[in-house]
């Protein structure tokens, strides 16, 4: 019987350049996570600090560590700001130069999946002119090119509608895009924060903190030129079932659609962005790993996942111990 498996995004355990990737991976394993969504920023930080900027060697070492910890690298993400570009030369450059590098890194990491968030490039800050098109035909054709290149190299892509995406900002729109792309290696990531299709590669569960004031110029989370929803997301996400911390979105209702109505079973990743991740306390990764796995098990009990067994820590690693590499 297929069951759900706990995963967490590497960025959800601490900020790059503050908390190192090996330490975060060890804390994830120590608390029972089986999978990791690997953010390129974490890999880049690891490469710059430890391997003189050699991303390929950083990817190889990351894979070795995950194998020792018994964890799977679900995907490399985010391959962003790609579809619908008005600058077609830039679109070609991303496919000709950036994508092959990502294939090389993903292969070294041992994953066949790359996540693609919907484009939120926005207008040119100097001229105010649009840099992307909402023409669904252009968006679909761009993603078909991506999928076809990936198919030839053995890769899958998972598309996610960001709620601050410039043109694709709802799950319905992302599903229409996936249907339009119509490639077996191009599917959906459904994120409970960004949502509020059966072709689902994995799901993300996360809540949001209720703010006590509008997110305008007077708010401490405000960033000029950044969509308000993005500013909220980057500072105030919470793990599901953290109502005591201010969580209030209907996450359980959304999750019931994933797991009961759609019958999804597979990777359930917790993707948290929060101001708390920047806390320089060396115990920050351990605290977020603990909160994340507690949240995962609470959701499992609420939704009565059949065949679900609570995870035990990886052998030889104590969840309460401090594991942090100094790079």
TrEMBL record:
<dbReference type="InterPro" id="IPR013022">
    <property type="entry name" value="Xyl_isomerase-like_TIM-brl"/>
</dbReference>
<protein>
    <recommendedName>
        <fullName>Xylose isomerase-like TIM barrel domain-containing protein</fullName>
    </recommendedName>
</protein>
<dbReference type="Pfam" id="PF01261">
    <property type="entry name" value="AP_endonuc_2"/>
</dbReference>
<feature type="domain" description="Xylose isomerase-like TIM barrel">
    <location>
        <begin position="27"/>
        <end position="293"/>
    </location>
</feature>
<dbReference type="InterPro" id="IPR036237">
    <property type="entry name" value="Xyl_isomerase-like_sf"/>
</dbReference>
<dbReference type="InterPro" id="IPR050312">
    <property type="entry name" value="IolE/XylAMocC-like"/>
</dbReference>
């Amino acid at each position: 019987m297929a069951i759900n498996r706990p995963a967490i995004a590497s960025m959800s355990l601490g900020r790059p350049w503050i908390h190192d990737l090996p330490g975060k991976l060890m804390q994830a394993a120590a608390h029972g996570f089986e999978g990791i969504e690997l953010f390129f920023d974490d890999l880049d930080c690891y490469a710059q600090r430890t391997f003189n900027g050699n991303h390929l060697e950083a990817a190889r070492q990351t894979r070795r560590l995950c194998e020792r910890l018994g964890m799977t690298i679900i995907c490399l993400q985010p391959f962003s700001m790609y579809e619908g570009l008005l600058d077609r030369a830039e679109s070609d450059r991303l496919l000709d130069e950036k994508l092959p590098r990502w294939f090389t890194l993903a292969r070294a990491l041992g994953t066949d999946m790359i996540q693609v968030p919907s484009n939120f490039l926005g207008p040119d800050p100097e001229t105010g002119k649009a840099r992307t098109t909402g023409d669904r035909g252009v968006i679909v054709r761009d993603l078909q090119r991506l999928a076809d290149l990936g198919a030839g190299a053995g890769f899958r892509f998972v598309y996610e509608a960001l709620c601050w995406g410039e043109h694709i900002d709802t799950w319905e729109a992302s599903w229409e895009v996936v249907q339009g792309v119509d490639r077996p290696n191009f599917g959906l990531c459904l994120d409970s924060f960004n949502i509020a299709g059966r072709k689902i590669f994995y799901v993300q569960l996360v809540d949001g903190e209720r703010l006590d004031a509008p997110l305008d110029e007077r708010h401490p989370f405000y960033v000029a030129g950044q969509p308000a929803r993005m500013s909220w997301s980057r500072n105030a996400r919470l793990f599901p079932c953290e109502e005591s911390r201010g969580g209030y979105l209907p996450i359980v209702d959304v999750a019931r659609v994933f797991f009961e109505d759609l019958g999804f079973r597979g990777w359930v990743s917790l993707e948290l962005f929060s101001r708390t991740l920047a806390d320089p306390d060396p115990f920050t990764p351990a605290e977020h790993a603990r909160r994340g796995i507690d949240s995962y098990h609470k959701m499992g009990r609420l939704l009565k996942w059949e065949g679900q067994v609570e995870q035990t820590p990886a052998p030889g690693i104590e969840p309460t111990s401090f594991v942090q590499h100094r790079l």
